[in-house]
């Protein structure tokens, strides 16, 4: 029998959820960057004089999301290994949620900025 099996498996499920989140961020960043390329191509092909000059915000936001996804992947791996060591240790450890709250705040801010970008793009058409 594995000692602390339920805690270790819960930690593993949490780690896998963070990996899915990071992969979703990477995929969404890639899609956002490609969408920006599509808008630029569309504006050059069909919108001569009809569109305002497009800013590089979409491309930059896509690159930022891919970078954030990679960072989340690295941090979740680090947190998984640290939590596994703490579970297997017999010492009483304290638990801090500051990192999760900080990351949640970053996700909220990025989501809000993407919403502003997309609504601005939709008003151009």
Explain how this protein is built.
- With about 120 residues, the chain is mainly α.
- It is about 80% helix and about 0% strand.
- The mean pLDDT is about 80.
Break the fold down into its secondary structure elements and pairings.
Elements lengths: L4 H42 L10 H32 L9 H27 L1
Helix pairs in contact: 1-2
First-to-last CA distance: 63 Å
Q: Which oligomeric state applies?
A: single chain
Helical fraction equals: over 70%
Biggest sheet layout: none
Count of beta strands? 0
Mean pLDDT reading = 82
What percentage of the residues does DSSP assign to strands (E)? under 5%
> How many domains would you count in the coordinates?
1
- Report the total helices: 3
Provide the gyration radius in Å: 20 Å
The SSE string, one letter per element, is HHH
Helix/strand-derived category reads: mainly alpha
Low-confidence stretches: none
Rough shape? elongated
